Amino acid sequence: xxxxxxxxxxxxxxxxxxxxxxxSIQTGEIVGLLGPNGAGKSTLMKIISGYIPQSSGTAAVCxxxxxxxxxxxxxxxxxxxxNNPLYVDMYVREYLDFVGGIHNIGKATxxxxxxxxxxxxxxxxxxxxxxxxxxxxxxxxxxxxxLFHNPxxxxxxxxxxxxDPNQLLEIRNLIKEVGKTKTILLSTxxxxxxxxxxxxxxxxxxxxxxxx
Length: 212
Ligand code: ADP
Ligand code: MG
What we know:
By secondary structure, the protein is α/β, with parallel strands linked by helices. It is built from seven helices and ten strands. It has a six-stranded mixed β-sheet, with helices on both faces. A four-stranded antiparallel β-sheet has the order 2-1-4-5, with helices on one face.
């Protein structure tokens, strides 16, 4: 099992953003987390990637508990947050070098940058500043960041939102390609998105799983 979640609850003050959520995701699946704005999708993804703690319940990635074994989880998980936060004043290669530094892979960084640029199709834009890229290429940089340390599990929060139809197809294809060798949980509020990319769908509303 790649992701195992049991009775997960998240309170923001008194608001229950997640209400006793349980689910499991098998290795190799591409799972779509579908729900309207405010459903709790981002909250769930932030907990799985170790970004914020839950209020109660447990979450595990590849058998590692997100709280007790947080560092192990971070090695296993690649996370693309909603709205793809990037340093727009950095050059693409400079940013990926920074990401390599975070993962502390030393001399292997340069090779990995070349590899990840090829995997994500960033070759022709690799010398530009991130702020100069189109939204689709910025999304590729975000995916390069998430994939940099070759994680087993990818958590992608609305990875295709705001893309034009061409960019949408390209990013979908890239995610499907990457999904051949990884477990992916991606969120969206668009039904067709799930049909186009996912092998399984989880519907969430008001912090509760409606169907799995
Ligand atoms: P989704 O990603 O499905 O749109 P979120 O997980 O972002 O949903 O939000 C779920 C609910 O929790 C929303 O009502 C949102 O306003 C609330 N929420 C999210 N983050 C916070 C926060 N840091 N503080 C307070 N409330 C929050
Ligand atoms: Mg969200």
